[in-house]
Design brief:
By secondary structure, the protein is mostly helical. It is built from six helices and no strands.
């Protein structure tokens, strides 16, 4: 039976850190404008409660920051996966992979978060430095 393992090389540590930082920065960049009251109006136009504006914006900004730091990465990545599923299915209606109203970037962010959930934050993270956290919280 084949045994799949992630290599413990320095390059893998850099790649996992790069993935976390990139995905986190994208979520922060997309989350900050969602504090604008116009986003609440947009949510109302697509049939979602406008009160969801602040939780969505906080999820993206705080979740992205936590991913960058490498603490609670799996939990925040799981929550961001749910956010991306909502973006794909509710906001964009899963209408088109490419073109107008496409969900290709949302799908890439979903897949990236799934990799973070499976692989964890890597050794270049606060979770690895502070070895007292249980593994499932990494």
């Amino acid at each position: 039976m084949a045994n799949a393992q992630f290599s413990t090389s320095r390059l893998n540590d850099i790649v996992f850190c790069g993935l976390r930082v990139t995905v986190g920065a994208i979520f922060i960049a997309h989350g900050i404008p969602k504090f604008n009251p116009g986003f609440g109006g947009f949510l109302g136009n697509i049939g979602m409660p406008p009160e969801a504006q602040i939780p969505i914006a906080l999820l993206e900004v705080v979740g992205g920051s936590v991913l960058i730091a490498g603490v609670l990465s799996r939990i925040s990545a799981a929550m961001l996966c749910m956010n991306m599923l909502g973006a794909i299915l509710v906001v964009k209606g899963a209408a088109s992979l490419t073109g107008d109203n496409a969900y290709e970037i949302d799908l890439i962010l979903l897949a990236s978060n799934l990799v973070i959930i499976v692989a964890g934050p890597g050794r270049l993270s606060i979770s690895h430095i502070v070895k007292r956290l249980p593994r499932f919280l990494h």
